[in-house]
Every structure is written in structure tokens, then in C-alpha cells.
Amino acid sequence: MAQLVRTETSQPAPPPARRSLRPSWAWIGVLPFFGFVAAFLFYPALSIVVQTFFDRERRPTLQNLLDLNQPFIISSYVYTIELSAVTAVVGGLLGFLLAYAVTIGRLPGWVRSSLLTFSGVASNFAGVPLAFAFIATLGQLGLVTQALKSLGISLYPSFSLYSFWGLAITYIYFQIPLMVLIMAPALDGLRPEWREAAENLGASGWQYWRQIALPILLPSILGTTALLFGNAFGAHATAFALTGGGSQGNVVTILIGAQLSSDALANPGLGNALAFGMIVIMTATIGLYTWLRRRSERWIQ
Amino acid sequence: MSTQIVTRRRFLKITTAAGFSALVAACGAPSAATPTSAPAAAPTAAAAAAPTAAAMAPLPAAPAAGPIDLKAIGGLDALVEAAKKEGELSTIALPNDWANYGEVKKAFLAKYPFLKHNDLNPDASSAQEIEAIKANAGNTGPQNPDVVDVAFVFGDSSKKEGLFQPYKVATWDSIPASLKDPDGHWYADYYGVMAFEVNTAVVKNVPQDWADLLKPEYKGQIALAGDPTGSGQAINAVWAAALGNGGSLDDAAPGLAFFKKLNDAGNLLPVIAKPATIAKGETPIALRWDYNALANRDQSAGNPEIAVIIPKSGSLAGVYIQAISAYSPRPHAARLWMEFLYSDEGQLLWLKGYASPARFDDLKARNAIPADLLAKLPKTDVKVGIPNAAQIDTANNAIKTGWPTVVGATVK
Question: What H or E segment, with its residue span, contains residue A205?
Fold first, then answer.
């Protein structure tokens, strides 16, 4: 079996695309895209990094970064990282199981297509509509809350939509479908021949999973989980809509908003430093995702 | 120096008739109310706010202030004509459900239909209004607010920063001296008392005092109506809690400690309370000005049932002020707005929304208040703390800077 894996690794890379000596006109097609990325991704990110190191009088300073070392800012980062990690792991696990069920779980084809369509919609169902949907179902006077109450089960006060777990459940709603969407192609990449070969050599189902399927899928699973982490970490609209701006900004994105939206504590420098901290964490996350993804793609070709 | 015992009626009386300066000059007896004390108190607040002003980037020079009263303009008809030429009025942070502003705006526009109304960011906080003036200085577009309605503490500091321009409305003399800047840069509009607004569909056992809020039965049910780092209503809720918990008008720290306890107990929600969240039951107990709470009670008309409680052990009175932006692109429309607000008609519209207008006593003395409206006003016998300008300044700073560190960002 190990041999088989090694053979796969040494598979030659696809032949390089044919290159023409003349400049290709096809580049013109992607120029608007690069312009867009430069204007709306690189320029704002660069401006955040630069402004982090300047004070209000445009003098270079490290004060903004030093200001991050305050209990309420650290606790806010910890809270956001915990929230992102929990929703990435729970959402990732449930999403993986769902994707497994529809790809190699021998479910009828219509289940697969309808689940993928639903996932496409639900993974983008975030922000204001999602917050209100959850208030209407699980809020203090929500439909589910009231229905349970009439059965004698009272959710509140032990549960609150505005607590850590309330927010986590709301986030998991858009994390699961994202995991399904990204994992389904990876699971499709598992070739039936591998399993057949393993079974012919006498492997049990458990051995197949532990020694073949999981090692192949693991980079993909971990990579997608990293992406889910980043997805939750950068979320703002859902938390904002849920709390109406959150007077206590427990999520970093809301805290940034509070620093920039000119209330009495307004400190754009600190806001930039907070965003800079997020860029660092996000870059690490996306870097991890890209690296793991590249490792896994070797198997899916 | 702490709180004095007043009934709501008596509160209205001392803050208007005799004791305008109960608000500005004294936390104590109405006898401290002397016209001279107002200017004396003013520089303290302004001086304290100066460092903040200095830290900001310089603003472009404001256009020269215009005529300072109706006579200088040439009478109301001339003002209406000048406003007609401007054609627009931009107001900011005037929610329809706040102090009856919905009806005030409607009545004003019905009277002067030639004005196009730009209703900017109705949910903005006082601090955001001041920032909007600064950010739009020199801008003549509709996004530049002509007038603001801000918490009392912003009056002198913003005057000092040159953000307001003076104008004395026709009814100027009937506004108590301590409720206005002697030069006309700002004038109080209305005031109220901090109260608990309770959705009784969710909360069966209505809390009667500050200490009650700590009970486990209110877990996850209590919300502020703003961000305590910038909203006057939220800051005053924290300060009012101080009065009921061993603090005073000079010491707001116990309020922060109280909210920390509330948060640690899991009773404080990280949600900004608004009429919608109260109706939905998402913020079953909201700390809001009594006029907002009472108006909301009337408006929801029993769906859901709303109770308004002034905490037994004491609460706090708060004043808001009106001012015309120094950078107003439509200064005549702005003056027309002020004339309307301070006319009997405008003042009664505020009173209809349970906000006690600055000219309350004058209206009452002239029997200009309809009897049914007067009868509807709430009566309470609890202690109401009435801070002066310096105390407001100190407490505001203590609360907005102390909130993130004492109570913390991560509300449980």
C-alpha cells in the first residue's frame, strides 16, 4: 500500500502549457480583475499596515501596536479566535460528514444535487438576514423557543442567542455548507479503484480509511477548516446585526468598527492596529490553507 | 452633594421656573440657582474638553456666523424666504421614536413643504453627530448636518472647538438662563429621567430597583440603549446606576462596578436596545430615558405590554441641547427649524412625547399646555440626581474611558 502511495507521488507533473514568444492578448482579459484586486484588496490592506505605524499628526509611531496590549483588546482577540476555532471545527466536522454522505455514501443522486445547491445558497446566507432568521427562531420570543416552552422545556436563561454559543450556532449555519461545497470535490477525488485494490489485498474498511483515505484527505480537511476559521474570524455583519452594533464589541471586527465609527473612544490608529492584527492572523490562516490545499491537490488530479 | 429628593413635578419646576441652574449650577437646593452661576460653570467643562480638541487635525475656517436673531434677519417671513432659497434641511440623529421626533419632523415639513428633508443617520450617537460636523466641514452637500441634538456635555466643548454658530430663537427669553449658552451657541431642548423599560410579556416579575437587576432571574435580559463609550443615554444609565449603588453625582465609579457585576452575573446583554428589540423580546429590560420608554409604551399599545419603572433608590436627570452647525450649508433652514422647535407648537410636540421641553414653565405659566397632556405626565416620588456641567463632564469621561477596562469587551 505504501508503494502505491509513493507511485502516486512520483506521478509526473502535467506538461507545461505551450508558450508563445509573442505576448498573449489573453492578458488583457484579466487586467480589469487585477485592477480590481489592486484597488480593493492590496491598496486598502497596504493603507491599513502603513497607517498602523503613524499617529494622528502623521508621525511614525509604534504606540498603536503597543495599545493592542490592553486587557479588553486581548480578551476580544481571544474571544474571536475561540469563536472561529469552535465554529471551524464543529462546522468542518458536520460538513465533512454531510459531504461524505452525498459523495460516497451511496445516497440517491437527487439528494446530492439538492444538498449542493442548498449549500451554495446557505454558505452565502450571512449577515442581517441570518441574524434575523435566528432571532425569529431561537430568540427570547422565537418560534422554536416558544414551541419548546409549550412542551415545558425552557431554553432561556441557560441559553442566549447573544452568548458565545448563541453566536457560534449562528456562525455554524454558514460554516457547514461551505465545508460541504469544498469537501465534495475532494471526496470525489477518492478513486474507487484504491478501495478495491486495498480490499483485494485484504484491508478492512477501517484500515482503508486510516491508511489510505484519511492521509489523502487530511490536508484537504485541515485546509478547509483553516478557511472556515478565516471565514468566521472576518465575519462582521452577522454579529453586528445580531447585537445592533454591540455596545460591548466582543468580536474584533465590531471593536474595529467602534474605533472608526467616531464614538467617544474613536482612535483610528488603534482601529488600524486592530485590523493589522487581523491581517496577520488571516494571512497565516490563508497561507496554511494554500499550503495544505496544494498538498492535497496532488491526489485529486 | 449627592441626590436630592424631588418628585417629577417638582423636578420640572426646579429645573425650569426657579431652578434652571439646578441643572448647571448645583446638585443641591434650588436656592443655589442664580443666573450668574451658569457662566461660571461653563469654562470648567470647556477647559476639560480642550485637550481632546487639540488632538484633532485643524478644521477649515467656518463661514462667518449669520444674523443672530429674527430681528436681524428681518422677521419670520424673511427667514422663510431665505430658507426657501436653500430648499433643504439636513438633520442628524433624530430617531422617529425619540422624544416624539417623528411627529416633530412631520409637523415641521407640513408647515414648510418647500424644504427637502435629509434625515441623516437617525441612530447616531451624540459623539457621532459632533464627528459628522467635523468630517463634513466645508462640504455643502446634503450629508453635512445643519443642526444637531446632542447630550448636554457637548455644548460648551463644541462651542470651544468652534463647531456651533450662535442663534437666539424668538422665544429666547423664556428659556431658563442655565439651559442656554449666554451667547446663543446652544440651548437645552428637553430632559428626562433614566428608567427601566420592561417587556412584561417576557419579564413577569418587574424589577423595581437597581439591586433587583442583579437577581439570577434576569439572566441575559438587561440591555443598554447604546454604547457607553459614546452614547449619552448609555453613559447616563451607568451613572444613574452609580447613584443607586453608593456613588454620587461626583463619583460614577460605583456605576461601572455595578455593570461589571451585572456582566459577570450574565445578566447584561451585548445588544443595543431599541423599540424593535424590546418589542421582539430580545432586550426584555432596557435602560432608557423615561420619555423614550413612555412613548414606546403608548405606541406599542399593549403589544407587548410595557412597564416603565424609575428605580426606587434613585435615578438621574439628563438634558439634551440644540445647536446650529458652524459649517451648516443651509443656515436659514437651520434657524427656521430652531424657531419651530422653540415655538409653543414645537415645545408641546416634545412634551407629547413625554420629554420635558426647556420652556415647560413658561408654557405652564401661560396655560398653554392642554389639560389632558398635563394629566398624562408621569409622577414619581423617587430621588432624581441633577448634575451640573462640571459633574457631567467628569462622569462622562470616567464612564467612557472606564467602560472597556472595568466592564470589559467580552460581555458574557
Answer: helix A205-208
Q: What is the mean predicted confidence (pLDDT) over A243-262?
A: 72
Report pLDDT for A249. 56
C-alpha A10/C-alpha A7 separation (Å) is: 5
* Helix (H) or strand (E) segment spanning residue A191: none
ipTM associated with this complex: 0.71
Peptide bond preceding A157 in cis form (omega within 30 of 0): yes
Using an 8 Å Cβ cutoff, are B323 and B166 in contact?
A: no
Look at the block and give the residue holding cell 484579466.
A30
CA atoms of B289 and B193, how far apart (whole Å): 5
B280 and A73 in contact by Cβ < 8 A?
A: no
Reported as a single tens digit per residue, the pLDDT across A41-56 is: 899 999 999 989 988 7
Query: How far A263 CA sits from the closest chain B CA (Å)?
Result: 5
| Placement of cell 465534495 in the chain | A184
Q: Is the pTM here over 0.95, yes or no?
A: no
Of the candidates B9, B94, B12, B101, the residue with the CA atom closest to the CA atom of residue B299: B101
The tens digit of pLDDT for each residue in B262-294 reads 988 889 988 889 888 999 888 999 999 999 999
Contact assessment for residue B228 and residue B263, using Cβ atoms and an 8 Å cutoff? no
User: Which chain B residues are within 8 Å of A249, Cβ to Cβ?
Assistant: 227, 270, 409
Pull the grid cell for residue B382.
423617587
Q: At A247, is the secondary structure helix, strand, or coil?
A: coil
Q: Among B125, B205, B271, B300, pick the best mutation site for testing chain A contact (most A Cβ within 10 A).
A: B271
A266 CB near a chain B CB, below 8 Å?
Answer: yes
Is residue A106 scored above 80 in pLDDT? no
Whether A87 contacts A232, CB under 8 Å:
yes
**Alpha-carbon span A263 to A257, nearest angstrom:** 10
Pair type for strands B88-92 and B116-120 = parallel
The yes-or-no verdict on residue A184 having pLDDT over 80 is yes
How far is residue A115's CA from residue B158's CA, in Å, rounded to a whole number?
A: 58
The residue that leads in pLDDT, B246 or A22, is: B246
DSSP run (H or E) holding A124: none
Residue B293 pLDDT: 93
Is the Cβ pair A258, B227 closer than 8 Å? yes
- Residue entry with cell 486598502: A44
B195 has a pLDDT exceeding 70: yes
The C-alpha atoms of residue A140 and residue B273 are separated, in whole angstroms, by: 14
